[in-house]
Design brief:
- The complex is a heterodimer of chains A (about 280) and B (about 220).
- Chain A has about 280 residues and is of the alpha+beta class.
- Chain A has a domain of about 160 residues.
- Chain A has eight helices and nine strands.
- Chain A has a five-stranded mixed β-sheet. Chain A has a three-stranded antiparallel β-sheet with strand order 6-5-7.
- In chain A, β8 and β9 form a beta hairpin.
- In chain A, α3 packs across α7.
- The N and C termini of chain A lie far apart (about 55 Å).
- Chain B is mostly helical and about 220 residues long.
- Chain B has a domain of about 100 residues.
- In chain B, about 45% of the residues lie in helices and about 10% in strands.
- A two-stranded parallel ribbon of chain B has the order 1-2.
- In chain B, α9 packs antiparallel against α10.
- The longest helix of chain B has 20 residues.
- The relative contact order of chain B is 0.22.
- At the A-B interface, β1, α1, β3 and β4 of A face α6, α7, β3 and β4 of B.
Chain lengths: ~280, ~220
């Protein structure tokens, strides 16, 4: 799509200076931030970057399905020092996802509510499956008349999530998932193995089991505290640049970064889970 | 002169060439390298230790990587340039039919803004389309470049300069023959595209006033 350059730059600047205070000018220089990120990578055995290093940068794309056309601000996060941290976290969240579903199913099992998984879907094709399942509860007479289906969307989600609250909710969820696996199977560690073509994960009882795996470069092992510390660092260091100015996002998570979708899904899941838990208790 | 002592001395190396257009696939470079008349051009002591090289293509940038300017605006532009863009007047009046009525500036996904058929065709292929012609290399030049790199490496290993010249010339001769044939009888050219250089120059004129980015 084509956009007037002056309008593009002005739109990004007005977003950066919006009164909501989502972004603040960073009090650290870009080089200092990069140094900090690289030292974190080194300490936690994450990969550095081959060329650069650079910070994320903010860009705008336009939503043509809205009237009037609206900008969507996203952070381009490839080849930054924290890209590897973010990618691994994303993989760990992906590996945690089946257990998150199990937590939900087990919660609803006690009151005998039929349920296969939580409301989180991997992609839009899952919607059809959910609708089909829901339709099973309708009688033949009901099915004769069409059912009105409505869809709702958050107008702004990613840039509204309070970071302190997000960290707290994610900490609870990660601990819940790991405790659940510890209680059920005595698993304490989660191992994720990924290559360009494959993704696999395995829950482990102790770190000695890692020696069974040969390719040391494509897997990572973590326990709950590791995941929490990686996530905390990532969320505390949401720095990006635009026009060589350095900013920090202090409300919400940058869109388009690895793991942002899982964070948003899990964050909303914790509220749903608490609601169900509370409802059952009442 | 250095004489290699084992068959694995040269190893099986890669000839890496820029992939400029789909007819390159039809050339079947690997089969050229295996032709007896090509192998005969290798000096006997080299042939004894010769492992047939593997052929690999190096793909050029996609249209998105080549033309989209959000990266340049977000990462490379200096603060002074950003201020200049904000405080200068925009060039939207050049494209009156593409101005968004609400914002009063050009925001358009209509390719007609490009006004050149070659550019419209190029952009209509999508952001992942690899526009090989932008490398400004012909098929022969691209393969020549790849061969040169391979030959230099092998000759350095052997310690003899120019020993593979005859072999390289023979390979290029077959490449030339097959290139001519592939243009007369094209294999599959659905994904090939040529854009006149004048059209690309026109894009360069548009780029200072228009940002090119994805649709959200």
């Amino acid at each position: 799509m084509f956009v007037c350059k002056k309008f593009y730059v002005s739109s990004v600047f007005s977003e950066l200076n919006s009164p909501v205070g989502t972004y603040v000018v960073s009090n650290l220089a870009q080089s200092d931030i990069l140094k900090l990120h690289l030292s974190f990578n080194k300490a936690h055995n994450f990969k550095g970057v081959k060329c650069g290093p650079h910070l994320l940068f903010l860009c705008a794309v336009w939503k043509f399905h809205k009237t009037p056309v609206k900008p969507r601000f996203i952070c381009a996060a490839s080849s930054t020092p924290l890209t590897d941290v973010s990618k691994w976290l994303c993989s760990f969240f992906k590996a945690m996802f089946p257990t998150v579903n199990d937590l939900w199913v087990s919660k609803l099992k006690k009151p005998d509510v039929p349920c296969d998984s939580s409301w989180i879907l991997n992609d839009s094709t899952g919607v059809v499956e959910v609708i089909n399942k829901l339709n099973l509860s309708r009688s033949e007479i009901d099915k004769a008349s069409p059912l009105l289906l409505q869809s709702f969307d958050f107008s702004t989600l990613y840039t509204k999530i309070d970071l302190v609250n997000l960290k707290a909710h994610m900490r609870v969820l990660i601990n819940k998932v790991f405790n659940w696996m510890l209680e059920l199977h005595h698993f304490k560690f989660l191992m994720v193995k990924k290559t360009a073509l494959s993704f696999r994960f395995l829950w482990l009882k102790n770190k000695a089991e890692i020696n069974l795996f040969e390719n040391l470069h494509s897997f990572k092992v973590g326990e709950a505290s590791d995941l929490i510390s990686w996530l905390d660092f990532l969320l505390d260091n949401l720095s990006f640049c635009f026009g060589q100015g350095v900013y920090r996002q202090c409300i919400g998570i940058p869109m388009d970064t690895n793991g942002a979708v899982y964070l948003a899904n899990f964050y909303l899941f914790t509220y749903e889970f608490d609601f169900i838990k509370q409802s059952l208790e009442e | 002169m250095f004489f290699p002592s084992s068959a694995s001395f040269l190893g099986r190396d890669l000839i890496i060439s820029v992939f400029v257009s789909p007819p390159m696939d039809g050339l079947n470079l690997s089969s050229i390298l295996n032709l007896p008349s090509v192998l005969d051009c290798l000096p006997p002591f080299v042939r004894k230790f010769w492992s047939l090289p593997l052929v690999a293509w190096k793909y050029v940038k996609t249209s998105g990587q080549e033309f989209f300017s959000y990266r340049e605006l977000g990462r490379s532009v200096r603060a002074s340039q950003v201020n200049k863009i904000i405080h200068s007047s925009c060039a939207c009046f050049h494209f009156p039919s593409f101005i968004d009525s609400h914002h009063g500036h050009v925001i358009s996904a209509t390719l007609n803004i490009l006004s050149r058929p070659g550019l419209i065709e190029l952009f209509s292929r999508g952001t992942k389309f690899r526009s090989g012609f932008l490398s400004m290399l012909s098929i022969e030049e691209a393969i020549d470049k790849g061969l040169k790199k391979f030959v230099n490496k092998q000759e350095a290993l052997l310690g003899v300069q120019g020993i593979l010249n005859e072999w390289k010339a023979k390979v290029l001769l077959f490449v030339q023959k097959r290139t001519c044939a592939s243009f007369v009888f094209p294999t599959s050219s659905d994904s090939s595209l040529s854009v006149p250089s004048g059209d690309l120059d026109h894009l360069k004129i548009l780029q200072p006033s228009l940002g090119i980015t994805y649709i959200g």
